[in-house]
Input
Amino acid sequence: MKNTKRMLKQAAAGLLAAAMLMTGCSKALSGQGGDPQTKEGDKKTESSADSKEGQAQIDTSKEVELIMYLVGSEPARYGEVLEIFNEKLKADINATLTVKWLSWGDYLTKYPLVLSSGEPIDLIYSANWIDFYQHAANGAFMPLNDLLPIYCPKSFSGYPKEEAFPQTSIDGQVYAYGSTYPTYSAYGAYVRGDLLEKYGMEPVKTLDDYGDYLKTVAKEDPDLVPMQIVATKGSQLDDVYLSMDGMYPLSGNNGSFYFVDPKDPQGKVYCKTDWEKMPEFLEKMKEWSDAGCWSKSALSNQDKSLFAAGKAASRLGNYDQYVGDYINAPERNIQFVNFTKNIERLSFTQDAMSVPISAKNPERALMMLDLILTDPSYYDLLAYGIEGETYWFDENNFVEALDPKNFPLESGTSGFRTPENNHYKAGSPAAIIEDVNRMKEESVPDKYRAFVMDTSNVKNEYAAVQNVISQYYNPLKLGYTNDYKTDFENLKEQLRLAGNDKVIEEFQRQIDEFNKSNP
Output
């Protein structure tokens, strides 16, 4: 009884501290994550994580329903799987789970609406590519510093805090529990080996090789779209061009208009139009566009399935996406061509889980997350479904889908993958283990992964710049121009009028401050 009371008091103290931190923390971004562990916080972490009995002694006498939002499409048999999951969850922590989905088609617009609606949500997928830092700074998420050691004791004990916390925190407060499954910044083109063989071409190794491949497709197979481009992302060939030089996007993701060279000790901030190779790039894109390397209506295309459906001969993407496309169409012998010069481990906010401020049961939600992260029987249900019906493990411990139409593997699970519970998929490229090990060995550290780009001081100018990019730059980088030199000069003038100089000055200030703290 004394132990029970002690643990309840500990839990209450942790919640009170978390609430005080949550209401008292500044919403302004500092330009870096900072260290969320104060000396006092260290003591709390040690005391609350002293024993694995802590979670077992937390009062779970009241049954609760947990609400979790994921990004993706709900598998047809997900409800069936969730019934089994909830039987286990109720027995272990007296809770049941309801999962709601934000589809790939509208997640960008619906995600902020869901967070601002006030709807009680206990867990939600979060990531830097869906504006994690902006949402956290605006008070959308609860700080997790004091909650994690109490309610996620098993996963938290081995969590890489020193590396992850600076990337998942703002002003010392942790707002995301990042996936520990490593993903890498290798990014490039997917090309079809069957087409290379058909055309009598050598494997694609360079960007110019890739251009030759696209031109050949346009000439030899007019019914195929040479390169899939989706309006929401554009071609992203400009990101490829910059990454070939080792430049780092300030936002941490493709699509950023602002960059810094990690090799530059001064940390000078560039926008894409100031980069010395931009005229060379625009000339190349004009040539490729005129050769029919992509559709003239690419900026309005919303179909993300052209390559997967065999209607396009190529697309750009990362290695994980490539594996999925390879498995789905082995007869096409899809090949991945990495164009990234410096391969890095992506941020812990690439895939993560957060607790919205509207959560009714944050403690129980984190207890459930701890089970998913550390107990394969929980993770396997959400990721793979029912063993023997929707999946099985082969002799290599690779996972094979038995009912992919009704339960595609790993739908929505990227926020809570770990190296321990993840399985490679059957039918993956033969060299997948070799490829992943090579990326791990070749990956280089980049301190800028912990940099948080803050637009709050220049929000009007930044918004105006985004409008200029959409109106003038996106068509230009796809070669939709009669005179790229004149249009490039006009673009730079429009950016100047929009306040781009002020935006660069602000980002330079932030980088300078970051570099002082991270020499």
Notes: The first strand starts at residue 64 and ends at 71.
